[in-house]
Amino acid sequence: MTNNDPTNAISADAHPPIIRALHADDNAALAAVIREVSAEYGLTPDKGFSVADKTLDCLSEVYDAQGSQYWVIEYQGKVVGGAGVAPLPGNDGVCELQKMYFARTIRGQGMAKAITGQCIEFAKQQGYQSMYLETTAVLVEALALYEKLGFSHCQHLGETGHDACEIAMIKPI
């Protein structure tokens, strides 16, 4: 896909973005990306979005738990996005795709599809049968991606703490 917008152009001679596991020294940069993207889309902490999570500044500890993993996208030496998987409490065999956010510099380059694929593979290896997510209608690009990847709308499952996310989706894996 060609994109002439210089804000998300990855030049052909640059090092390509990489997907790698989250490390503790990535915590601050990842939290900054999540806060920046949330502000861009009007997802404020007072409304129950993940930007309000108390664990936002220590995500490497959160995703160190059994059945959980978080990956970051690194581009030109900087963390520019990421996504994670964790068990959905009270729902055996179901994991949740969590905190998928991307800085403008990386959007439109296929990285969301790639990192979601990484999350799905991990979930399969962990023995999950379904992947659940919650999102909001203002994240139009994300919603379109989830639908393209085979997620379908469903009832809300569990208590994720993100009550402002009005859209729930699930995908058998």
From TrEMBL:
Source organism, top-level taxon: Bacteria
Keywords: Transferase
Pfam family, one: Acetyltransf_1
Record keyword Transferase present: yes
Record bears the keyword Transferase: yes
Occurrences of domain N-acetyltransferase (ranges): 17-173
Name of the protein: GNAT family N-acetyltransferase
Lineage: Bacteria, Pseudomonadati, Pseudomonadota, Gammaproteobacteria, Alteromonadales
